[in-house]
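Lab notebook, bench 4. The sequencing result for the construct came back, and we need a structural model before the next group meeting so we can plan mutations. Quick request posted to the team channel:

Model the 3D structure of this chain.
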Amino acid sequence: MINRISPVSTQSNLKIYRIISYFLIFFFLFSFFFFLIPHKVICESGNSLYKEEIDIAAKSAVLVNYETGDILWEKNSSSKMYPASLTKMLSSIVAIENIGNLEEVVKIPVNASGRNHSAFRFRTGDRVSLLDLLKASLISSHNNAIVALAEYVSGSQEDFVLLMNVKAKEIGAYDTFFQNTNGLDSEFPEHKSTAADLAKIAGYCMKNDLFCEIVNTENDTIKINNEEIEIKNTNNLLEYNYIKGIKTGATVNAGFCIAIYSEKEDLKLVTVILNDKTTEERDDDVLKLLNWAYDNLKYTKVVDSEKPAVTVIAGSTTVLDIDLYPETDYVNLVNIKSDTVDIESRVKDDITLPVEKNEVMGSMDILINGKKMKEIDLISRENIGSGYISQELSASESRQTLFIIIFLIVFYFLIFLTIIVRNLLLRRNL
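Done. Here's the predicted structure in token form:
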């Protein structure tokens, strides 16, 4: 038996095929022109990495970027604590800034004599240079040495402490209040600071060349009445070549404390540890923080001004692609294992020709862990006239666009050809 297709059924099928053909042709044309009409691309990039926690024994600690003052890691860094001999960082820098000639030899005053302040058996009237008193204060941490310096500068320890507290506020250590020059706290319950403030003080002190030289000295010799006395630095961590000072401290109330300045590669850090139970625990805490920092924190070029950030696709009678570049580089200290870096770019709604070289076409925000760190203008790197068709598309972008267009042409041509062949077969069967 031979099956025949009815004329009505054939006509109906032809109508359906025509409708499908028209729809596909329309869709093809729409897809093709989509690549030609003006539109803008806004690029965002992100990088989310692993975050590491640090377990330290100290009650309070802080790790600070020396160059920017940014807190990189902290534990109770705003809690008021006894600073012990870390006090001498501030008293010593105030002495340096108020003494004209450190080579001057002075007599030890009554209040700085005896053994009630330190192991030095100063006698009233002993002759010591101001520089040697400074070394004894910062290297071997002798309390009566800083008392002698204070009385030389101000006439009394009380008046000198006024200078110290004024200097603390100038530095930005607003939660610091000192009652003496050396940090002894048994009779001075309000003599307190914070880890964050002490880091600011340490950073300020390390900008002074003489201060830096002294606190980075492991062993030295001073003269008392022309008798040479050897002194040893209380900071055992100076054995690490990247640690450059600065001060240790300890009292019953304060526990074991330390402030450290370190340099490795291009990263400079200030570390403050307050109230550890032993010197070993204190030093271990410092090394934990520094090892973490130098393993994880790297200066990174977050934005490269030589690489396009955004490509603006525009055109009316012509197709125009303009690469927009960051006006400047942006380098920041980034935790390569935990920080999230996001870049949000914005461009003008309507870009008209001509476009001049270095013309501002938009801006980009750099966010680290969601916090806006910097805003940079986006500029054109070339002069583009009204009749200009940019040749600056990257090779990968050009190939990608061309491939999509060719694929669509071939795809729709094959569909169209299939429909035509189908129609011819249907007519032949009528």
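Residues 1-5, 34-51, 389-396 have pLDDT under 50 and may be disordered.
Will bring this to the meeting.
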